[in-house]
Every structure is written in structure tokens, then in C-alpha cells.
Amino acid sequence: MNKNKNKISPDELSEDRAVREIMEKMAAGDLKEIETAFDRAQTMKCCPIGSGISGICCKNCAMGPCRVREDRTGLCGATMGTIAARNLARHIAAGASAHSDHGRDLAHLLGLVAEGKAPGFKINDELKLLKLAKNLGISIDDRDTKEIAKETSKKALSLFGQQLGEIDLIKLAPKKRQEVWRKNNVVPRGIDREIVETMHRTHMGVDQDAEHILDHTIRTALSDGWGGSMVATEITDILFRTPQAVPAKTNLGMLDNDKVNLVIHGHEPTLSELIVELSNDEEIIEYAKSKGAQGINIVGICCTANEVLMRQGVSPIGNFLSQEIAMMTGAIELMVVDIQCIMQALGELSKRFHTKLITTSAKCKIPGATHMEFKDNNGIELAREIITMAIDNFKNRKEVFIPNITDDLVAGFSHEYIRYALGGKFRESFRPLNDAIIDGRIQGVVAIVGCNNARVPHDKYHNFLTRELIKRDYLVVLTGCAAISTAKCGLMKPEALKYAGEGLRSICEAVGIPPILHMGSCVDNSRILTVLSEVVSEGGLGEDISDLPVAGIAPEWMSEKALSIGTYFVASGVYTIFSGEPIPVESSQEVKGIITKKWEEKFGGKLEYVSDINEVLNKVIGHIQAKRKALKIDVKKERVLFDMEARRGMENV
What we know:
Blueprint: H1 10-13, H2 17-28, H3 37-43, E1 57-58, E2 66-67, H4 80-114, H5 126-135, H6 145-161, H7 175-183, H8 191-201, H9 210-240, E3 246-250, E4 260-266, H10 270-278, H11 282-290, E5 296-301, H12 302-312, E6 315-318, H13 323-327, E7 334-337, H14 345-349, E8 356-359, E9 370-371, H15 379-393, E10 407-411, H16 415-423, H17 431-438, E11 444-448, H18 460-471, E12 474-478, H19 480-488, H20 502-511, E13 516-518, H21 525-538, E14 550-554, H22 560-571, E15 575-578, H23 589-603, E16 607-609, H24 613-630, H25 644-651
Parallel strand pairs: 4-5, 4-7, 5-6, 7-8, 8-9, 11-12, 11-14, 12-13, 14-15, 15-16
Antiparallel strand pairs: 1-2, 3-10
């Protein structure tokens, strides 16, 4: 039993009322000895010297681990700066590989769909396919859709193994940004090549210049944001439909006492999309009723939840730190997981409840889970088998406690839908957004992205920053766990406009959008890159992303993917702040200087760690106001209403 359990109250551990209710229920009952990530964070301290916090421990060869200081090197002579740079580079390579492998799988699936070898899947957005094909340099004139899809798949897959030249999708960035990358020799040649080269350079005895290591790290991160992640997002839209605004409900209260509750969790939407579709099959619903349930309730956790939310309105019941808590309701018949951000603790925890835990990816097995591998040609059969297993488990329910806590949200803000919302069907454009920023009704745009981290209060930083920014007329866009966090506290619905400043509210009311836009899963941060590029192209706010009054924040980061995302935003010209837990370079003044001052000089963006959340807010606002001043739009313009006489005068000029 954890002797220190509940010394910190649930109110201090999480802003999610439903999570707190489950914690209080468990602490007062027979299951109080169960540990969660929240409990383990209280009793287990971070290693103060490892790459997790300070980045000064080198374990890249068997002479180590070497603990270094400014005045003491590793056994091979490696300095603190070299070691910190290597550690950061390896983190970013791992994050880039995770997102890019996701993109590779979807590119492969697109080819099988084109050949009719993936039953249950089809091309749902032909226009998006044609656009991607064109961006990849593929001819689309007078060609069959399946033929185009097949060649698009082949070309997308070639981006991973490409050895020379430049990956095609970087051409979607503003021309001036491309020139910056070429000048600094960081344009990705191939996705896999850059990741492998990072691992080679950081092997013992190879690259030993911190700035040189980190320049290649920029190239590796760009291969994620403008490569693997962008491929993943584009092909997901092609196969499952480009998101558009969709209303839904969120939080643990969306579990159903009377229905079979099946949770989809992870990051790949392929099998989950089939599960959602099959759950509406009349025959399957009747089978559920024959087992005593009123139907089937599909809900989600993490980014698989975001994917099916954006396209099918499926309720997200929680983000990363909600996964154990959700199982502890006793109401989940089955949790099916794929890849990324899945806690191994779920395997043991599932034994304490009736919940079946199913792993489906060839890349992931968990002790205590049943492995039922998804393959491109068995999706329908596997989805049916999994749903049936969940239904058959309904009779094994014991005590159930579902917090009566839900909230409304609106999701589905792909860059295509944002453009449509701003301009309408016949005049879709980012012009209204640019004009609103220029005249000061919207001060700037802030992306709040990333994870939860049990070492900071769950959801608190995401929600605090979102509230404070919209109050000051900053439009906020969110992805991943940050998006679910803000939805759970009621900020992602039209009624949240009452918290927004007058200028932001006037724009949102005029075009019919909330002040906080859910843009998708963590791989969908590539959507934000596309929006920024289109805003530059629209004109009036500079010639490059680095000119825009924008910033990015990862307030509760935990994953290596977050480091890759943050780095490709910096490389694209965006000031990016990490908070909550330090970036693993904090002991090296040399490396901190490179990722802030040097990167800002080279790329127009910098990566900074700021511990105090109020300072984060002030720094972001200060940065955006400086950008407004540089653009000479820092003086708010009064809106002038012209009468007919004034209009006639203008016509005569």
C-alpha cells in the first residue's frame, strides 16, 4: 500500500472534476491500495542528473553512465554541452520516428485501398487526394482516382527512404521560409535518413560540436512536421474524411450505465474507425440487447479519441492521465489500444476490474493484455470480434461508479474548415482572420499543444493559459491532450465566448466559431503549419511565418513527440515555450544558448523552458506584441461606419 497516498488532495492533483471524484471514491473504498500515475508521481522523484531533467548524464557507451559538470567531462572528454545536445537530439529523433511511423502506416494503407486489398476502407475525400497528389508532383489530369491514390501512396512512402534532394512537402512553406532552411542546410532529404543520421551522429565518438548536432536535430524535426506528420494527417483525411465542425460531449460522464462501454485509446484511427462504424450495425446492437445491455457506447481516450471525435463525433472521456481513472469506474467492458501514450500499468489494473485490455498493433504488446493484431486485410473481422468480446463481458460487471460530469464541445477545425468558416462556401479565405489581426480585434494566435504530466496538476496549465489568452483577445488553437483538457472544463463550446475579449468575441460571433479551436490529434500539429503558411500567403502580415504574431506553448509536456513538435515549430519560425517540466538541457548553458539565441538568429524562432506559468503568459504576450509592433499594427484601429454621403465621396476620389 502506498503510505503517502492522498497526502496531496485530489483538488491539487487534477482540475478535472470527474477524475477527482474517482480518486475520492477509491480512497474511501476497498480499492484504496491501487496506485495510479498520480500516486507514483508523489513517491518517485525524477533522477536529477539523467537526461530526463538536466541532460548531463551520458550513457551512450559502456564506459558510462558519465555524470559531468561544467568543469568535468565524460571519460572520453565529452563536454556537458555535447552530452546535453546529444541527449536532446535523441529525444527528438524518437519523437519524430513515432509520428513518422504513423504516417508510413497510413501511406501503406492508402496503396492497399487503391488496390482493393483493404476491406472496409475506402477513399472518402477525393478532393484532398488530388491536392496531396499535386503537392507530391503527381499528374492528376484524366486519371482514375484509384490510379492516383496508388501513385500517391508510392510517392508518400518514398519520402521515408529518400536519400537525396528535398522532401516535397516543404514546398508548402512560404518561399522565404524555404530560403532560410536552405541557407542553413537543414532541409530534410528523407524522413528515415534524418532520424538514422541523428542516431549515428550521437553515437560515441561521432559528432562532438553541440551546435552542429542541434542543426541536424532541426532537420530531423522538420522531417516530422513537414514530412511524416503531414503525410499522416493528409492521408487520414483522404481515407476517413476531412474534419468539419462537429458537436459532441466529453468527460467520464459519457460512460453509460446501461450500455456496453468500449474505449478506443492510442493514436492510430484505422481500426477504431471500423469499430465505430460497426457499433451501429443493427445485428450487433441486437446481440448486445440479448446480453442485457441497451446498446453499445464507443468512447475514446487520447488522440485516437481526437481522431474519431473530429470525424464521427465520438465522445472523448479523457486525456493521457485519465486512462487509469477511466478503468477504475468499473464501467468499461473493453479498452482497445494501438500505439503511443498507453500506460503499461493498464495491464495490471485491468486484473482488478472486469475490463478486458486488447492490444492491436504489431508494434505494441503489454503484459496482462490480450493481443489481437490488426492487419490491413482483417479490419472488419477484427472489429466485429472485439465488439463481440466487449458485449460478452457486459455480464461480468461488478460495482460501477460513473461521475455525473459531462460538458459540450465543438471540434473538427481542419485548416480547410477554418477557411470555409471565415469566408463561406464561395469565398472561403483566411482574409477575415488576417484583417482581424491587422486591425487589432484579434491580437494574435497561440497554439497550446502537448501532453499531461503527472508531475504538474492535471489540466491546470492548459486551462489557465487558454482562459487568460482568450480574455485578452488571442485566438487559441489546440491539439492532442491539451484540446481534451480544455473541452472537459467547458471552454470548447460556443458559450465560452462570454470569457473572450470584445474583439475576439466580435470575430467569432460574426463567422460562427468558438474562441478556442480543436484542430485534432498531436500528429495534426501539421495542420497548424498549413494554417500559418496560408495566413502568410493571404498577405498583410509579413513574408514569413517568423513575421506573424503567433506563439506555441507545451504547458504539461511529457512525450518525446512534444520535443519534436516544438522543434519543428521553432524551425518554422515560431517562438515556442515548454513549461511544467524542464527541457532536458537545463544544466548546459551552451545548449540553452543555442536553442534560444542561436536558433532565433538562424530560424526566427526559439525553444525556451519557463517554469512559472504566469511568466509563460507574459512572455507569449510580450513576444506577440513585439511582432505586432514590427508589422506596424500595434496601434488599434477604430472601426469606421460610413454613411451614404461618405461612400459617394470615396467613389469620387
